[in-house]
Design a protein that fits this description.
The structure is a homotetramer. By secondary structure, chain A is mostly helical. Chain A folds into 2 domains: about 130 residues, Four Helix Bundle (Hemerythrin (Met), subunit A) (Up-down Bundle), CATH 1.20.120; about 90 residues, Helix Hairpins (Orthogonal Bundle), CATH 1.10.287.70. Chain A has 12 helices and no strands. The longest helix of chain A is centred in the first third of the chain and has 32 residues. Chain A is extended. The two termini of chain A are about 25 Å apart. Chains C and D meet through α2, α8, α9, α10 and α12 of C and α9, α10, α11 and α12 of D.
Chain lengths: ~290, ~290, ~290, ~290
């Protein structure tokens, strides 16, 4: 969820003067303010969607049998296109290594690797759906700053409640292990409780109120214990919700984070009064 | 959710003097204050309910075989009745085009079209159940203003949390696509994971804790990943609830919206200090 | 959820002097402060539990085949016992008709009728489980006043959010009808969507995230629409929770209701400063 | 969730002078501040995890057939190891009886008993998974005090809402019994409603929105009643969440509890201003 405002680099080129075309490319690829930058983003998102549709269609057997060749071609077309884009990003960013290690840099790499991996390991190409994570860039072409502020509020609340939710999940984990073992002892393997791990899986299915029904207790005692797990699960769902509601109400008053991206490494999340990137030290010029 | 208070039109007939019967008809059809207006509304709601029951009965095979003729007749009877009512509404409203384009105007049209469409496309007549949306008028004959105020509070809170919920749903969508593809790779098609779209459908069934069980993981790894999705779904249901709770607490203090409908186009949602309709500019006379 | 504090009736017997034994009986049956009153309540609750167990065992075929006679006898024993208790209650209360019409009077009657009805309509005796509602009296022998205060807070919050929840349920109802009809048109009857009512049932199963899986969409389009309903259901569960959370936070500050019961008719819910019963006008003596 | 800070016992040895090695052992086993204490905790947690894995593997039939002997040996190895550790704990604590009766003392005993019980009752050894409860000690090697504070906030909120949640669960219990009996009367035993207890089990599965689907109504009336239970369950899930959210918001401001453990009996939960253990009266020395 980054917003990258390209800065007039020539104004404060402290370390090395950027060539004009790199600066322009940076504005197009990373920026969303200029007309070219916006167009680039829209084309990119359409490409991402098309490439995901290609992967999806390829997984449907009837489709693969009929259009296998074309889909395979399209897959490679999108992969090469995104590889080229990835190279351009590396070139036009001032500190490529920092971009490559950033969240979006990692996602961008991840969205081209599976095709190459698919040559070695059959089936790996389906992880191309990881490309959907690139869709996070969509917030840049929407009225982004507002959405990012909202996302930040949600994230801050999540961060603040992290410890409480860890404690909660730990408790759920222990409940699930103990009840799983208990049900394994009560129910026979005919009902589907074939081992403790399977019974734990069943307990998770039950306590989260998913309830597939592929495994379900048949004995009276088993149904009684299962009822207790259900009511417990029904009750304790209140805990994370309560935690998060309380946190969100607090964090809605907290100061939001600046959403501009660093022109040097593309990182975001700087404080509003920050003048330099906290990751690469690049000047976060605000002279326009 | 409209409240239409018929205004003494003769007092401020700026553009064209309404004939007496049109004004009276307006009071009966759109108003709920007079005895005739209330009676009209009650009869209308009974008719809507009966017409929906007709459609439902017609969909039950045993019923259709035995009473097919009568049900077909009743369907046409209600459709012609509602068509006539729709025409009356168009006639007695001062700006018919604005009414036709309003929410309720659209619903009113939608509730007669399927029967005619059913002549061309068999099965389309089942969309007559859209008539249930006309039931929203029921709030007019209940102690409406109170209910509408409550509904407004709920809507305002939904509107204010729209962006947060968009961000949330977007995140869920991405999780579901990535996990769907992952499960497609892990599980064989014998367990029901026949394609990535189907696996995404399964992931939605799981993350929302619906859990039909028509598709469910059979391998140990698949069950492990599924457990993670469930716990995730169990945890993140806290997010929309937290968002909405926090928003509702704020909006309960916010100023409610005026619920009177415009005598010109029937639109509602004007501010309390509004003197003219914001859609058609008609005077929202409050001289009584 | 009543608390009945027997009052020294002789001190303020305005209308008719109660005979000593009726007053003593009142203290035992309706009171929970004296040793005899507490013992009566405990015995009563044990009897209620035993009678419910009898009904449950009677419903298990293997049990009925073996102990049918004994269970039938026990059923009549408890019914006659509770009938006798009901009569005693009518006798020792000063205004029997008001007691009979009160919530608990109604429950007490309901818990003896099904046995008699079972003579006429086979199967009606299973409604004896309504006796469980008598268990509400259990709050009297626990540290009751605290529990009743909590229950009151929950009830007040429910009452205050009644209109909001009505609006919400109405919206859910309409969604479910429209989506049910839509799915009936999309899916064939082989998947279980045999009629619109059945499809509406499926939509409720889905939107509430219960998800039995006895009926589930098989076509791609059906699964897509179902996914939308699920995500909708997942999102709008936030609405009642938000409503109730916000309301509960407000009502926790509101003044609680007095929980003493009227010695005349047994009604509760009087304001703290009330001197006379608001239902029968009896003096709510507080002279001890 | 205990934090045990070993106190320099020689400074205030009021009752009996502890031998040096017992004091040192206490620091290693119960403490987490010294290097040796931390190492002991980490080794312990690894042992616990390994022993649980052993039990799980033993429950998988294919594993048991192949590695039965080794798994049986490992089980006894871990049990003897934990028995030895339990004895050490008893020795180095000043008041062993109080430790043995404490929460963690009980858990420690529980995690060795099943193996011995398994000699008498086949299958009892699966309850060795109760060892997972020992994992609660993990909070000691994490930045514990913060997690324990969070856990305390969650616990305080749960305690405060205990009565409200009791009232809520009681209501759910009664709904479930009444609706279970109702469905037993409506549905035949072919749909799975074979007895009232089974029907109550179904009602719990439904009202908690788990929905296995192993039992599901087939008649129109049954589906109608089931729909009502679902919508009820969907609505009342708001109640515990609302209760807990409201409570959590209050308790976040309340004063946290001191997390130091008593050097005498290992108990925690003392108030911040407590000078002596509230369970054994030992001095909670804070002179370092």
């Amino acid at each position: 969820m980054t917003e990258r405002k390209p800065v007039k680099l020539q104004n404060h080129s402290e370390d090395s003067p950027a060539s004009a075309w790199r600066s322009a490319l940076n504005q197009i690829i990373f920026g969303a303010e200029t007309r070219a930058g916006k167009a680039f983003d829209i084309v990119l998102i359409i490409m991402i969607l098309l490439s995901i549709l290609t992967v999806m269609f390829d997984s449907i057997e009837a489709m693969r049998n009929q259009y296998g060749q074309q889909l395979y071609g399209a897959e490679w077309f999108f992969t090469l296109l995104f590889s080229f884009e990835y190279l351009l990003r590396l070139i036009c960013v001032r500190k490529p290594w920092l971009y490559a290690r950033s969240f979006f840099g990692f996602i961008d790499l991840l969205s081209i690797l599976p095709t190459f991996l698919g040559l070695l390991i059959p089936g790996a190409e389906y992880m191309l759906t990881l490309r959907i994570l690139r869709m996070l860039r969509i917030f840049r072409i929407l009225k982004l700053s507002e959405y990012i502020r909202e996302a930040n509020i949600l994230m801050v609340a999540l961060n603040n409640s992290f410890r409480k939710i860890t404690v909660f999940l730990f408790t759920v984990l222990m409940l699930v292990v103990v009840f799983g073992a208990l049900m394994y002892m009560i129910e026979s393997s005919e009902s589907g409780f074939t081992s403790i791990p399977t019974s734990i899986y069943w307990a998770i299915v039950t306590i989260t109120t998913v309830g597939y029904g592929d495994i379900s207790p048949q004995t009276a005692l088993g149904q009684f214990v299962a009822s207790m797990i259900m009511i417990m699960g029904y009750g304790i769902i209140a805990v994370p919700t309560g935690i998060y509601s309380a946190e969100l109400m607090k964090s809605q008053k907290s100061k939001p984070i600046d959403n501009e991206s660093c022109p040097g490494c593309g990182a975001t999340g700087h404080d509003f009064d920050a003048d330099y990137c906290k990751y690469c030290g690049h000047f976060l010029g605000e002279d326009d």
